[in-house]
Write the structure tokens for this entry.
Amino acid sequence: MSSPTTPADVSTSPIADEIPTAPGLLRRMMRQRQAKIGAVLTGLVLLVALAGPLLLPWVTGYSSTAFAGRPFQPDGVFGTDNLGRDILSRFLDGGLRLLAYAALATVLGMVLGAVIGMTAAYSRPSLDTFIMRSNDVLLALPQLVFALLAITVLGPEGWVLVTVIGVTHAPRVARVTRSATASVITEDYVRASEMYAVPKWRILLQDVLPNITGPLMVELGLRMTYSIGFIAALSFLGLGMQPPTADWGLMINENRIALMVQPWGVILPVLAIAVLTVGTNLLTDALAKASANLNAGK
């Protein structure tokens, strides 16, 4: 006589295998040409952002805050900025904070959104309705206006930027997560766990979360792209990182007044942000196609 099936056995059933998991999804994604191009573009910008601060001042001869000459002069490789600092030094030192803050904000938004979405989908209908209608209220608030208000009240600190952007991402992530969770909680392996009286939080972590990684990873790429653009825009408006901090968004704002005289202070950060955005979008599109193909069994 065969032994009864346990929840762990059911979670590895063919039904569960039909839903995309992270390793298989990434392998399918990287087989696509656009994913390889996106990985190269993104990797180049990440290399500059991560290695740039380590190269100063040995490569350029200046730190990112040191004065190298008169403002907007063609001294050095790319000239000087509005205060006479070396543009290449500022550029090499300006990407790490942007990417770090964007990554932290993205992770915060994904965690909050995933918790809200899974909780709503796996709750009784009245609680689900209350959570999602409250979520819709947050969605109705313009992200930029909310960020401007929060930063004006709390100040342009790093933790404020991360928190504000992460919170504004959460409602959008929650809608995607709820939709993905709703399609999973009706599967047999979830019902088997419920039959064995497994706690709801454990079902969400062990049975649901691993099986909605496809949509969540696609959303992760999108949120990272938006975070980068959001932080750069706030810095351009003077509400992000403050002088004399080296930051790509701040560089654009500082040097735009002399774009025709000394364009490199604007061109370099714009080019880096554009390449990073294109690269992450290519990866996100490839991830979406891989998720769709895996769901379709191709």
